[in-house]
Amino acid sequence: MEKKITDFNGIPVLMLGEDIVTENVEEFNAVMLELVNNENYQFIINLENVNFMCSSGLGVIVSVFKRVRENKGDIKLVHMNDRIHRLFEITRLNKVIDSFNSIEQAAESFNK
Questions:
Q1: Quick check: 66 and 33 in contact, CB under 8 A?
Q2: Secondary structure of 17-67 in the HEC alphabet?
Q3: What is the value of pTM for the model shown?
Q4: What's the CA angle centered on 9, arms 8 and 12, to 5 degrees?
Q5: In whole angstroms, what is the distance from residue 47 CA to residue 101 CA?
C-alpha cells in the first residue's frame, strides 16, 4: 500500500496513495494501529488519492476511531471524493467522523 505519514503543526497526517481494497486492507489496518500504538490519538487521514474504499477498509476506520475515542482523541478525514463521501453518508459515519476540504481546516478543528 502506498502511504506516507507527515506532520502538520504537530498532528500526524496519513496520506494514502491508493484505493483501500481487500488486498491491502490488512496493511491499512497495520498502519492505523501503528499510529495509535505510538500514542497518536489525534490524526488526519488524507483520502485525496483514494477513489474506492471496501467495507473492510471502512471497518478499519471505525475500529481505530473507537480506540482513539477511548483515549479522548479524534480522527479527521480530508479530501474525500463524492463516492467515499456518499459511503460515509449511507453508513451515517459522517455524523461521527468529521471530514474537511483541507488539512488546515482539519487541524484547526482539533482545537475546538
A1: no
A2: CCCECCCCHHHHHHHHHHHHHCCCCEEEEECCCCCCECHHHHHHHHHHHHH
A3: 0.95
A4: 45
A5: 10
Return the SS3 of 83.
Answer: helix
User: Cα-flanking dihedrals φ and ψ of residue 7, to 5°?
Assistant: -130, 135
> Residue ranges of the domains in the chain?
3-109
- Name the one residue in this structure whose C-alpha cell is 474506492: 52
- Over residues 5-61, the pLDDT tens digits come to 999 999 999 999 999 999 999 999 999 999 999 999 999 999 999 999 999 999 999
Separation between Cα atoms, residue 26 and residue 3, nearest integer Å? 13
C-alpha span between 51 and 2 (Å, rounded): 14
pLDDT tens digits, 52-105? 999 999 999 999 999 999 999 999 999 999 999 999 999 999 999 999 999 999
Does domain 3-109 correspond to CATH entry 3.30.160.20?
no
